[in-house]
Amino acid sequence: MDAPLIRACNNEMREHKCSVDSNENDKKSSLIKLLLCLEDTLKRGYHIQDECRREMLVHRRMLMSDYALSPELQSECKNEMVQYCPSLFQQGASGTIGQRGGRMIHCLLAAARKEKSFSSRCLSVVNSLVRAVDPGSDIRADPLLESACRPVIDTLCPRMKPGDSNVILCLLDNLKNARMTEDCEDRLMEVAYLLARDWRLTPRLLRTCQTNLVTFCHLPKDWSMNQDISGVQVGMYLGCLYQQRQQLDKECRSELKRIMHIRTQSIGLMPEIEDNCLTDLAICKNPEIKGEVRKNLKYIVKFPTM
Q: Where do the domains of the chain lie?
């Protein structure tokens, strides 16, 4: 474990019981656990000092750039790396960070999005890593995504400051813009696959709707970034919010509609269908996979609920 991170975040670690495994062989795994705990603290609205935040960002970038820092990913995703990312796998974990540069993790994200045979265990490990890195709250945490989208950000989101959590939403809002590049869109959709599956990775929705989720959708008050959450559960919470939309706070209702619109953009759903199918779209397990929504909606039309 890197000493600067522990020094910078020592107070937060003590206050929120973010422990580090003292096992010499588990230091790399402990980094993910520590970042998840600190991210959990942030998401719950607790204050974290600027110095600690800066060190967290440094280590989040390292995690997303260098898959060798995640032993669990190397062991649980070996088959996927060999099958879907063979050229990157041949470089091996001994290659330089410049050679890898986050490409392996993005390759796995792309495969998870497209390949039905992608193992649930590997997906769970990748999901944990992305939760720890949390590019949705700060795109700078994902160097490959940031570099691919920097020209687009400068053009389409020029007023947003570095570290603004709205940057990634601005990019998603502009998926169909003529100035969106193919490289940026590809990297963006790889990350959006998990963002759409886990509302905890969408900072503004989390910030604006947390109270409503607890009040109307029975979200446990002890929810945590450390817990895995299935696609079905995500759909249940989003579906619940949409069903309760008339009772939601104005800001939450507005952000929910925005997120649902972004989901439809990513699969190219026609506006006239979108307007009438948002409730059903919310419960689709994998809205990012083209055909999944149409299959779900076809089922709903065939067997309508009363």
A: 1-65, 198-302
What confidence tier does 258 reach under pLDDT thresholds 50, 70, 90? Answer: confident
Measure the CA–CA gap between 145 and 141, rounded to whole angstroms: 9
Dihedral angle over CA of 66, 194, 77, 64, nearest 10: 0
Supply the DSSP string of 126-186, one letter for each residue.
Answer: HHHHHHHH-TTT-GGG-HHHHHHHHHHHHHHSTTPPTT-TTHHHHHHHTTTSTT--HHHHH
Chain centroid to Cα 101, Å, comes to 18
* pTM of the predicted protein model: 0.75
Q: Is 222 helix (H, G, I), strand (E, B) or coil?
A: coil
CB 168: neighbour CB atoms within 10 A? 29
Q: Determine the pLDDT at residue 113.
A: 84
Give the separation between CA 249 and CA 208, rounded to whole angstroms.
Answer: 8
Look at residue 105 and tell me whether its pLDDT is greater than 90.
Answer: yes
Q: Tokens representing 65? A: 């750039």
CA distances from 65 to 55, 145, 172 (A): 15, 10, 22
pLDDT in tens, 199-253: 666 767 777 888 898 999 888 777 666 565 565 566 678 788 888 989 999 999 8
Would you state the torsion angle of the CA atoms of residues 105, 108, 113, 116, taken in this order, to the nearest 10 degrees?
-160
| Burial class of 24 by CB neighbour count within 10 A (0 to 12, 13 to 18, 19+) | exposed
At 107, the amino acid letter reads C
DSSP 291: T
> Do residues 151 and 183 make contact, with C-beta atoms less than 8 angstroms apart?
no
Residue 303 predicted with pLDDT over 60:
no
| Residue 76 burial (10 A CB sphere; 0-12, 13-18, 19+) | middle
Q: Which helix (H) or strand (E) holds 238?
A: helix 231-243
C-alpha distances in Å from residue 291, one per residue of 1, 268, 269, 273, 296 = 43, 10, 10, 14, 8
Say which residue, 244 or 267, is predicted with more confidence. 244
